[in-house]
Design brief:
5 helices; 25% helix; alpha/beta; 8-stranded mixed beta sheet
């Protein structure tokens, strides 16, 4: 596992031993960021099930201004800390706990939200609704959901509209954009 592009491009990342996390494959990660525009000139990212920090660190490498990484697994939290330290990245915070237990403490809205839960714990629609209700997604912000390929999602979740879906083997990536309030 490595950073695909940006200021940390090709730098390796540590992963968790065992099956406590399922890091996003480099091919899928590269495709997601290409779909989002490749690089960022600012913005804030929320990685709801951070695992190794892989997606948030990729976003920071590509120019995202700040990233919040939420993870409840202790071993994964240690790996995230090691990866952040190896890159000497300062523009991030690591929060211990489940996204559902910590989201009420989040104070600022995000431009990019990445949701890739353990498949058996998937509550993606409920999570998007709650993030939207708490005003944690900026207008025109993107929510990206990684799921099993056969999973289906509604066209509209709260004030977010499905933009597109793409399947990579057994993985589906679904993109939602928060619409302006009328």
């Amino acid at each position: 596992m490595r950073i695909v592009a940006g200021k940390y491009g090709s730098r390796p990342l540590k992963s968790c031993k065992g099956d406590t996390t399922r890091p996003t494959a480099d091919k899928v990660k590269g495709a997601v960021f290409s779909s989002l525009g490749g690089s960022f000139d600012s913005g804030r990212m929320l990685d709801c099930y951070s695992g190794t920090g892989n997606m948030a660190l990729e976003a920071l490498s590509r120019g995202m201004k700040f990233a919040t990484m939420v993870e409840k697994d202790r071993m994964a939290l240690n790996v995230i800390r090691e990866n952040v330290k190896s890159l000497q990245e300062k523009n991030c915070e690591i929060i211990s706990g489940s996204i559902f237990s910590v989201m009420n403490r989040l104070k600022e809205a995000y431009d990019l939200v990445y949701i890739d839960p353990p498949y058996k714990e998937e509550k993606n629609v409920e999570l998007i609704e709650k993030l939207d209700h708490l005003s944690l997604i900026n207008t025109n912000g993107m929510v990206v959901v990684e799921s099993l390929a056969q999973q289906t999602f509604p066209e509209q979740i709260a004030t977010l509209s499905k933009q597109k879906e793409k399947v990579y083997g057994i993985t589906k990536i679904t993109y939602y954009r928060k619409q302006e309030q009328q």
